[in-house]
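The instructor's notes for this session suggest beginning with a concrete chain rather than abstract definitions. Hand out the sequence below and ask the class to guess, before any prediction is shown, which regions might be ordered.
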Amino acid sequence: MFGHTKKVRYAVVGGGQISQQAFMPGVARTDNSEMTALVTGDPVKADKLAKLYGIKAWSYDDYDALLKSGEIDAVYIATPNFLHLQYAVPALEAGIHVLLEKPMASSVAEAEQIIAAQQKGGAKLMIAYRLHNEPGTVDMITRARNGDFGDLRSFVSVFAQNVAEANSRGHNGYWGGPVPDMGTYPLNAVRNLFGQEPISVHAVGIKSPGRGFNFHDTVAVTLGFADARVAQFTVSYATASSEFFELVGTEASIHANPAFMFGPKVGIAYVERTADGSKEHSFDPVEQFGNETQYFSDCILKDLHPEADGEEGLMDMRVLAAIEQSLEKGETITLEPATRSRRVEADQALKLKPAKQPSEDEMISIIPQSA
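After discussion, reveal the predicted structure:
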């Protein structure tokens, strides 16, 4: 199936900012993955990106033909969230592996349909939680679970940016807004640091004066957990940039910053504070998109089950749906108890060197995200 080169052949579905800026340059850092196709509805992107990377461009209308073409083994799907289902399901049913950007869909029902397609088709599905292969994040998760910080009690985080209303993220309702887009990061972090699923969700949202978003652009969320643990995070599309999280245990606290971002100069780092003083733990920048692709391709080539699978995506989706419900009803939403069958393992951390990223003005037909 993979010839003599043992490289997984990817089609990139969606030629937006994340594909152009991060995924497409990152693939070159791997030794087991290559791009052979791009699916885009923009003829200019089709022409220029296909030439730049020496790959074949396909239109969305020809997607089924691409899946049957024998020219790809896997797809990386980076369309807007509400289109994930439409491209993930046919690929999985056709036996094509899927690396799917997070959040995995725009409803719990859609996420469940994607998982059902994976089980039916037998191909592998991984949700693109790039930080699950990033050394600093993996270090914090494994140490938290090993009890290095004592009994974990509290998690607090902010992840915020100023997004232009003109960007697709500015006018597609709750599921195109800051909670699924940015809230997935602190949510996924705390679920993995605690090694537990939340049992209650309460959210408060505001619409900033003078901004034209059709959703709450700034949202504060409180999550309740069993075992005397609580988490809070705030996300925004209408403020200056901010990102950090603070995890507090009975023996130590850690403050992570940068905590969620990527880039050639971004190394995830955290300060650990105990009664004895504080210690800084810093990690070199890595090629986060190359890392996750390398890891997923390795799972495909060795027939291993990826850790950040459909279940991991679904665990975040059900909380995101509960946040939406809480915003609508103005009350606390109770979640069914759930447990995750997999955990982030220490050996998932990879250290590929960062690829050079094109700047916003070098990218093709992009409406810049930042206001």
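Then share the key points. The mean pLDDT is 95. Residues 310-329 form the longest helix (20 residues).
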